[in-house]
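__Record contents__

***
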Amino acid sequence: MLHFLPAPLKGTLAALLSLCNTLVLFPFLMLFALLKLVLPFPPIRKGCTVVLNTIARVWIGVNNLVMDVLHKIDWDVRGAESLSREHWYFVTCNHQSWADIPAIQYVLNSQIPLLKFFLKKQLIWVPLLGIAWWALDFPFMHRHTKEQIAKKPELKGKDVAATQAACEKFRYTPVTIFNFMEGTRFTPAKHKRQNSPYKHLLKPRAGGTAFVLGSMGEMLHTMLDVTIVYPGQSKVGIWDYLCGRVHKIVIDIKVREIPPQFLGMDYETNRKTRVAFQRWVGEIWAEKDARIDALKQEAHPRS
């Protein structure tokens, strides 16, 4: 609608409107977060959780509306037809830009349960955001280093057990756990430094995903393997996204059933399981690399 405006003006408007959206909804989020904190009765907490997740979805929805009003993006979404908000999902995606998260939220916000990330337990003390993450039931990781376990063997397995306890609330409420397997954004310099065997991807970090599946294996049986491509653009930043300089986004979703042997697995101490899981992740990454190549070729076929 307003895509004719100059790009810097559109970027400024998008940022300001997103900030206003946050300032309007954040007090409501904090109100129900505090109710959930001071009234720890299961029916009240469950009701507050429903309201809090709705507030988060409204926040994303308003941001999406802002993008629709300001920009004209050609969204090419594939594989989202059979998704449900009544199902549990683990989502991973190749990571090229800070624009990846709002783009994925744009596509999946009304299709699946609210995206949630595993966070380090220390982040719960971040002012305001910590209680917001807690209120939205973002799982906080309790992970001990190999050095800590070596000094105190009794810590072995307690990190997974603590996380399983924290995620117990998800047993009856569908949830989506999101994780970038690459761990960081793709850049040519990082790709060269890693000597990555993939053309378009950094090496996947299997450990983080293994921790999620080891902690939540009884609930997470389905992976959404998301591949995101920005045709014709070698570099996309969040400011480019806000300014409307991104004209087309391809989001390809492949639904994968997670092999049963990886659900609730002991990744750190079971070498056989660890090798098998790393092989499975490597196969997924090889397929994704070929898929990115095909999507780019499809957008710009060679003559």
